[in-house]
Amino acid sequence: MVSYDPKSWWGLIFRFHKSDTFRMLLPAMTTMAVLSAGVAWLAQSGLIPPFKGTASVHSLLGFVISLLLVFRTNTAYERWWEGRRHWGALVNASRNLALKLNAALDEGHAARPAFARLIGAYAGALKDHLRSQPGRGHEPNRVAAELFRETERLYRRGDLDLARLLSLNPDLTAFTDICGACERIRNTPIPYSYSLFLKKFIFAYIVSMPFCFADSFGYWTVPFVCFVFYVLGSLELIAEEIENPFGDDANDLPTDRIAANIGSGARDILLGNVAG
Asked: What letter does residue 161 receive in the DSSP assignment?
């Protein structure tokens, strides 16, 4: 995830990151510029008839496409934010579990390093699992099962009483609940038909734009069309990137950092200054 200062207007305006949509859209924008210039030349030469009255129709279509893009962007951001909420819940569940174990286990107990390792391992396993293709094994479930086994082992040995065992259960089950919620986000993309329709709509809108405005604006149609295409195309690209927030794109969630913080936090609570 890109870190930046939202108050630095000039720095953001003139900053070109590798994830900037301008670079991604540059080949298509070049094509549109050539097309717009050709249509403008044909219109100025009188080789194509002026399309009178089409500008108002195109403006109406622009309003419709803006509504569709607003819905698309909001839906993608909701998925991104929901993913962030679930990873925040994982931070809290991991911290609560470590604190409860720290209070329940004697200082220097042999199970402390194991729990510190497993809590950090679950966050790392979930991060990698959400980035992999479905069907490659389920490492988070394996780590969660080991956490349950270790807890049950403490209970059978008498190191945990029933009340403390029950108090640990909500935090242990929260791990699997969070994993399932994140899998739901990853495995349920925006419906294909909707995404395909929006792309076709943007394409048709942009390609027809030079014919609507070349007679009135001449060669100024070229920058005008390119700018509109850049805005509309960028919104669609950004929505595509953040609708699955668990990858390693620049605008995805910082799951690497969150997982590392969960592991270091568990070690600090259960092991103190002892390196895990």
From this structure: -
Residue 22: CB partners within 8 Å, gap ≥ 6?
16, 230, 234
What pLDDT, in 10s, does the model give residues 62-94?
A: 788 888 888 888 888 899 999 999 999 999 999
Q: Which two tokens stand for residue 132?
A: 């992999």
Q: Reduced to 3 states, what is the DSSP secondary structure of residue 252?
A: coil
pTM: 0.79
**By the 8 A CB rule, do 80 and 244 touch?**
no
Q: Is 5 left (phi over 0), alpha (psi -120 to 50) or beta?
A: beta
Q: What does the pLDDT read at residue 2?
A: 56
Contacts of residue 37, defined as CB under 8 A and 6 or more positions apart, other chains included, come to 219, 222
What tokens were used for 253?
């969630």
- The single-letter code of the amino acid at 131 is R
Query: Of 151, 154, 155, 178, nearest to 97 (Cα)?
Result: 151
For residue 191, is it left (φ>0), alpha (ψ between -120 and 50) or beta? beta
**SS3 track for the chain:** CCCCCCCCHHHHHCCCCCCCHHHHHHHHHHHHHHHHHHHHHHHHCCCCCCCCCHHHHHHHHHHHHHHHHHHHHHHHHHHHHHHHHHHHHHHHHHHHHHHHHHHHCCCCCCHHHHHHHHHHHHHHHHHHHHHCCCCCCCHHHHHHHHHHHHHHHHHHHCCCCHHHHHHHHHHHHHHHHHHHHHHHHHHCCCCHHHHHHHHHHHHHHHHHHHHHHHHHHHHHHHHHHHHHHHHHHHHHHHHHHHCCCCCCCCCCCCHHHHHHHHHHHHHHHHHCCCCC
